[in-house]
Amino acid sequence: MKAKPSPHATSVASMIELPQPLRALAAYRQFIVYQLVPDTARPGKTFKYPLDWRTGKRADAHDPAIWLDHTMAAATAAAFGSSYGAGFVLTAADPFWFIDIDECLLPDASDWTPEALALLARFPGAAVEVSQSGRGLHILGRGRAPEPRRKKGPGFDLYTERRFVALTGTGALGDVGTDHTPALVQLVADFLQPEPGAIPSEWTDGPCEAWRGPEDDHALLKLALRSVSGASSFGGKASFSDLWTADVDALARAFPDDHGLGGYDESRADAALAQHLAFWTGKDCERIRVLMERSALNRDKWRRDDYLPRTISGAVGRQRDVLGDKPPPSDASLGAAAITGGEASGRSPKQADILLDIAQSAELFHAPDGTGYADVHIKGHHETWPIRSKGFKHWLMRGFFNATQGAPNSDALQSALGVIEARAHFDSPEHIVHIRVAELSGRLYLDLGDETWRVVEIDAAGWRVIDKPPIRFRRTPAMKSLPIPVGGGSIASLRPFLNVQSEQDFVLVVAWVLAALRSHGPYPVIVLSGEQGSAKSTFSEIVRALIDPNVAPLRALPREDRDLFIAANNGHVLAFDNVSGLPTWISDTLCRLASGGGFATRTLYSDQDETIFDAARPMILNGIEDIVTRPDLADRALILTLEPIPEDQRQTKDELWAAFESERPRILGVLLDAVAEGIRCLPTTRLTKLPRMADFAKWVTACETMLWPAGTFETAYCGNRNDAVERVLDADPIAAAVRTLMAKESIWTGTASDLLIALVGVADPNVVTSKTWPHNPNVLSGRLRRAGSFLRATGVNINFRKEGRTRTRTIHITTSPN
């Protein structure tokens, strides 16, 4: 490499703007704030601790929730003080690699060591800067290579992921965007292959001759879990119990992560467990593999063909003693480690106590309604389950089986759950638990519902998929997963799957979806009507599948409030199919559920306790007839009429859904783009006039410029509301009669009794004798008040007054241009 940083380069005082050689990193929102802390044990050295920029506390650098763009990270670090900086997090998803060369400055500080210069020569044009200490170098570039078997080479470390780089900009040269894949492949081949002799050549399938231990795995594990197996025999790192149960706190103390990621070094823990088992099994490689796969450390990386065999072989090669050479270490006070063995007194622990010991690894908390929850670690990710749910019970019973090779009895399980629930309620913090969507600190979160519990985080800068969200979601058995969203799509790709008749109707459907992606209401109700063959049910299923797919996407309308609110408690979107009419009570309940409202009922098997449901939910209704006839629900609705699909344009369900699933990731991506635009623009969005669903209208107006020209939604929404007014007034015999009466007069005044007589004179005789016609003045007054806002929209104004000394109640009706 012809260019090299000067050993006397001046430190960059501010990194608010990345220097040109590092500028390509700015396209990635993977920057964190870190703190420099002196290492008292090594003068001149420092620790670099990643921080959560929101709290200033130490955090996991690999948690996307704390990532920022470079400008924000650098500005935050500068605001924190001189001992803070901005670092870039390397991940498997980005194309960058990083070589760290420590202590490569010659003693006289005249130049860099020949070894360092030789490394620089391998990567001509790559970015290079002087490290924080001033005595090392960083080389950064683009490229892909087979994963190296070792990270450490002679005098350098290579990282391609799970590492953050403390950028300095000092003496920066070259360009981090330059691709060096061939040179990287050659470096791995030259220096980062396994050391000869480090791994035994023979894979053993039986114990060595010196071993004297139980052949039964269950008996062997009981013996191992009863021992200290750590402080003296295995280097003072972690006990066998700590490793077997994956005790995160104990492992973080024993194997701190030196990559700045928080938690513990998983590879070192794997190696330690393998070495423990090498002692207990007599270096039986095959038995070690079988037992390791039963442990709580088990993770996806172990599925790789070479990883676990190399880890086990290396541990067997390092371990000197085996069980039988000398008595195994023991512990007089076993505590949690005795979960499958006897206590010091010889008495076996009770099953409930074993279950309580297993639950120690769960993080307990309670929701505002008092429900107890547990965060549990499963196969490298966290899951949140109500303590009384099947999910948590299954986790607890799996832990019991792993520890004892047996099953707990029902009484022990119920007793343990009762204690765990009490601890969650009285001794643990309170957290809000969400279903499918959530909001925190100006960010929205969408639960993908997949098996690794990933979440999409959305803010003003865009969206990203993260593994460790800062909020908690719960899952229900009927929830289905969403696809990983993909950027670069177009909202137009959604329209072929929806039987909409106009661009205005399509805009309203997208507006409803954007509203449903928020964590709080009010939400509009989308109402679909049309004759058979207009794809109402398929329309409803596809719209729901965009944000809240479900095993049973469409359901019949519940028969009572309780069932409706239970459904709302178990899903984000409610979709009701083939609705033939809305009774008054359910129309009112749907209004409460759209705007946000509560429902209380007596808790089952209790005379005093109440169960409270408090929620707002997006809803879909479909039916053949015009099912929304009451003005208060119509005011909250988007009402669309679907036309029958001609026979020559129909598709089979399999064809339609296959095409939709192909497009769904890109459709979701463009919807998330619009949500990010809404978050960015909402604070400055202003409406010329506020409709009934003002929050909904403002939100969609803030989002719409990502999808179509400004004002498109307002035009479509106003037109739909006008149509809804006409539909409702036509369906209301009293409203229709008032309009007929006022078509001949500009002012009408009188009592409710007088008006009832006047309306009978202009209404259809068949309507007057029907059950829907009011037969007393009080009912008429109520009907007029309910229809008042929609009549006013057509230029008919109704006012109720009390006049005269007798305070006679009169009704004044006037007409005005609408």
Please provide a written account of the structure.
- With 818 residues, the chain is α+β, with helices and mostly antiparallel strands.
- The strands form 8 sheets. Strands 5-6-4-8-7 form a 5-stranded antiparallel beta sheet, with no helix packed on it. A 4-stranded antiparallel beta sheet has the order 2-1-3-9.
- The protein is elongated, with a radius of gyration of 34 Å.
Radius of gyration: 34 Å
Largest sheet descriptor: 5 strands, antiparallel
Q: Round the mean pLDDT to the nearest integer and report it.
A: 84
Oligomer: single chain
By DSSP (H or I, 4+ residues per run), the number of helices equals: 24
Share of residues in strands: 15-25%
Strand ordering within the main sheet: 5-6-4-8-7
Distance between the termini: 79 Å
Overall 3D form: elongated
DSSP helix fraction: 25-40%
User: Which secondary-structure class do the elements indicate?
Assistant: alpha+beta
- Identify low-pLDDT runs: 195-201, 228-236, 325-348
